[in-house]
TrEMBL record:
This is Unique cartilage matrix-associated protein. It comes from Crocuta crocuta. InterPro entries: UCMA (IPR031386). One of its GO terms (cellular component) is extracellular matrix. It comes from the Eukaryota. It is found in: Secreted, Extracellular space, Extracellular matrix.
Length: 138
């Protein structure tokens, strides 16, 4: 029983000693530093919120509840911008393809014209025009 009283007395004295040391430490620290820490904590509390508050804030508007007009406006602007970018991209692709096809057709026409001209020069006999449909075959 005596050891219980001794243990209780030592714990009580340790608690009193710790409270006195804590008060002494806070009194010895400058008030400017303490005030700065308090304002820092106030700012952090204003900026950051508790995790439970944040989750409640995010869950406040469910999937079925109506959106605010600002949210609707922002989503519409994002959709319009995406549509505009998509339209510009497809227009650019179409223009590039049209230019490619036009160049291919021009090259093919040039090769055909050169081949026809070579054929006409080779088969021309000086008597008739160099057109094939004017040639008479016996």
């Amino acid at each position: 029983m005596a050891w219980r009283q001794l243990l209780l007395a030592s714990c009580l004295s340790a608690a009193v000693l710790l409270t006195m040391l804590q008060e002494g430490t806070s009194a010895s620290v400058g008030s400017q530093q303490e005030a700065g820490q308090d304002t820092q904590e106030d700012v952090e509390q204003k900026i950051f919120m508790q995790e439970s508050d944040a989750s409640n804030f995010l869950k406040r508007r469910g999937k079925r509840s109506p959106k605010s007009q600002d949210e609707v406006n922002v989503e519409n602007r994002q959709k319009l911008r995406a549509d505009e970018l998509r339209r510009e991209h497809y227009e650019e692709q179409r223009n590039e393809f049209e230019n490619f096809v036009e160049e291919q057709n021009d090259e093919q026409e040039e090769r055909s014209r050169e081949a026809i001209e070579q054929w006409r020069q080779w088969h021309y006999d000086g008597l008739y025009p160099s057109y094939l449909y004017n040639r008479h075959h016996i």
